[in-house]
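Quick start: load a record and inspect it. Here is Mitochondrial enolase superfamily member 1:
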Amino acid sequence: MLKAKITKLTVSDVRFPTSLEQHGSDAMHKDPDYSVAYVVLDTDTHLKGFGLTFTVGRGTEIVVCAVKALSTLVIGKTLEEIVSDFRGFYRLLSNDGQMRWIGPEKGVIQLATAAILNAIWDMWAHAEGKPLWKLLVDMDPRQLIRCIDFTYITDALTEQEALDILEKANKGKQQREDQMLKEGYPAYTTSCAWLGYSDEQLTQLCSAALAEGWTRFKVKVGADLQDDIRRCRLIRNMIGPENTLMIDANQRWDVTEAISWVSKLAEFCPLWIEEPTSPDDILGHAAISKALGPLGIGVATGEQCHNRVMFKQFLQASALQFVQIDSCRVGSVNENLAIILMAAKFKVPVCPHAGGVGLCELVQHLILFDYISVSASLDNRMCEYVDHLHEHFKSPTVIRNARYIPPKDPGFSCEMLESSVQKHQFPHGEVWRCIQGPKHSPIM
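Running the structure step on this input writes:
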């Protein structure tokens, strides 16, 4: 199967009108339409690869254009050529001598790179007949290291240090895998408290989540302080002092404003404040971390962190207490492996971002790998869960007792139902033909 040659790359703009009911709404993204640039790789055999990158509506067509621009670097290669030198292939995509100018390794070009690489990893896992997490867990540590580009991060993590982390974690590895298959990985829910939801919705959804066994809840904040106080009090009173509360401002504040605002929410004992300021402001996050530490509130960020280099600096500056990897924002599994290993060296827990469409399906594989093969710890660790749009995937996420149950189907869980892709293609799919207005018009 590794001899299969990639003969075609198809990319689709697939969008879901989640803004109509305020799903996904936060202080900065008030009307998101959860969307993906969806990639399908065909080969000269029956083997296929499916990948995606997540967006929130307008602009998805720009990512689609970037994927098409990169496709010439993929078509004609065999899977064996790619995975035998995966580090080299990652560099090929991310460091093309001309296209890197519109990155490098960030923004739209990195989202497009992630979509393609996600499809390659999906194809490799299908070829091996394993879910991606199992492919990673079973991989020889030296082979896994060869998938990672260590450029620009050796001052924080060398190849030898990464290898040492993986080899140290071999002890107890099988027991942890058995534990995950039996119990699943701890999750938290964001679905109860989107910013656009009414208090009645919050109450109803929180009550239902408690009844289903959820003990960790995240609340969107940042638009209005008094509104945040009221909503946090409502949620905290419902979940009680024994359960965990997190808050997320989605980059709304300046540094001093963040410290002041969150200090006024400290009475609700949040475990973390997520994305309190610009996702690029490493020193700002460090200042916020230092100020809020005495209040017992950590800083979490990473879902819009461009690449491994930024994560390196966040860790070096003690600017975050929770690393939030994203399966599509950085350069796919390859770059997330580097970030997971750096987080292990700096002893900072990884708690992935997994909202949107498809992100839960993908990131569950990474967090299972982290626990089984790297961190060997569940202390202060959990993975986000949002209960939207899973029905559009061939192998949807399975949650039981507020835990991710490890997927068993081969692949990276990226494959969408063809009927869903056709119905939601923008702008001519059936769903979008019925929706009019400037918010739902393509950028020309």
